[in-house]
Specification:
Layout lengths: L1 E9 L2 E8 L7 E10 L2 H7 L15 E9 L11 E4 L2 E2 L5 H4 L10 E2 L11 E5 L3 E3 L6 H4 L2 H14 L7 E4 L3 H13 L4 E4 L3 H9 L4 E3 L5 H8 L5 E6 L4 H10 E9 L13 H7 L2 E4 L6 H11 L11 E4 L3 H6 L10 E4 L4
């Protein structure tokens, strides 16, 4: 049996190819994919800025679908069951995997980044990475599980709690999810900064207390909202070294920077070491959701803690994936673009 797959054959160029439907091996399940979100990482891959050595490949890792078949020793899931999938495949036995730090596994693979992903009709994945999802939750909502899991992990690593002031730099799709999760946690005030006024307005509509589109006024706005102290936590969600430097000026003494936005390789952040020590400031990186982060993200979506509407309005069919990527920069109001793989 054959399937359609969107293969990124070179930066900026997809080909819709016919490929054999994969056979699930021992411990694997075959998933019929229904909906896939386009991630910022996918855009970097498309533009040739990331994982170029993996091309040609099938990108895509924010996906949902139904179990189509199971290999030997894979008997936890039933055929037809709706599922989401943890994209991070560790070796399972190394020091980091044993400590639930799969992202640091030296032999880790990531679906859609180092191995073929979900912009296709079927995919085989290890059964232990597959999470059952309620049948009544719409595919477009379930496809948000993986990006929300990334935000859950960032909040967990930063130990954000109620009553803390937080600045989110960047009001794109992930920045918007940060805002919504912060609101659910009870952080206050939540201050959002982005050059796109439309996205700032969207962040305000889902829970931000203060929105700033003019970078010249950001510092003053943060100080005004925090009684002159600076923010407890600043989340950099863009990936610009200059914005990381800006973040160091926005935290209070004893504040924390959540390093989330991916920069280019070799980007550096100069720190005043003495001030960092004396003020007990901190910075911690976070890059993807794994394990329990995925389960928690799914729970939040199932119980309507996240407004999915800003993320599910732009949908393209698999055959039109080239147009979906080509037009992204001209659709700033679409926080997320999803690819429809199959219609039930």
């Amino acid at each position: 049996m054959q399937m359609k797959a969107a293969v990124l054959v070179a930066p900026g160029r997809f080909e819709i190819q016919s490929r054999p439907v994969p056979e699930p091996q021992r411990g694997e399940v075959l998933i019929k994919i229904s909906r896939v979100g386009i991630c910022g990482t996918d855009i970097h891959i498309f533009n040739g800025h990331y994982a170029a050595d993996s091309l040609p490949m099938v990108p895509g890792h924010e996906f949902t679908g139904r179990v189509a078949a199971s290999g030997t020793d894979a008997n936890r899931l039933r055929a037809g069951q709706k599922v989401v999938v943890d994209m991070n495949i560790g070796c399972g036995v190394c020091y980091w995997c044993r400590r639930q730090e799969v992202l640091n596994c030296p032999d880790m693979n990531q679906i859609g980044i180092t191995v073929d992903g979900a912009f296709c009709e079927y995919i085989c994945v290890p059964e232990h990475l597959v999470i059952p999802a309620p049948d009544h939750i719409a595919d477009e909502v379930l496809a948000l599980t993986e990006p929300l899991a990334c935000v859950v992990r960032a909040a967990r690593k930063s130990r954000i709690t109620f009553g803390q002031s937080v600045v989110v730099i960047g009001a794109g799709p992930i920045g918007n999810l940060h805002v919504q999760l912060l609101r659910t946690i009870g952080a206050a005030p939540i201050i959002v900064a982005d050059l796109a006024g439309e996205r700032v307005d969207m962040a305000i509509s889902v829970g931000a207390d203060v929105g700033v589109a003019d970078p010249e006024t950001l510092h003053a706005a943060v100080m005004q909202a925090t009684d002159g102290r600076g923010a407890d936590i600043v989340i950099e969600s863009v990936g610009n070294p200059s914005l990381y430097r800006l973040a160091t000026t926005l935290i209070r003494k004893g504040g924390h920077i959540a390093a989330f936005g991916l920069t280019g390789a070799g980007a550096e952040l100069p720190l005043d070491i003495l001030s960092t020590i004396l003020q007990e400031n901190s910075i911690k990186g976070s890059v993807a959701g794994i394990g329990q982060d995925m389960h928690d993200a799914l729970t939040l979506l199932v119980h309507n803690r996240i407004d999915h509407r800003p993320f599910t309005s732009a949908v393209f069919d698999l055959a039109d994936i080239q147009a979906a990527f080509d037009t992204l920069q001209h659709r700033p109001g679409d926080l997320k673009t999803q690819i429809n793989i199959s219609r039930e």
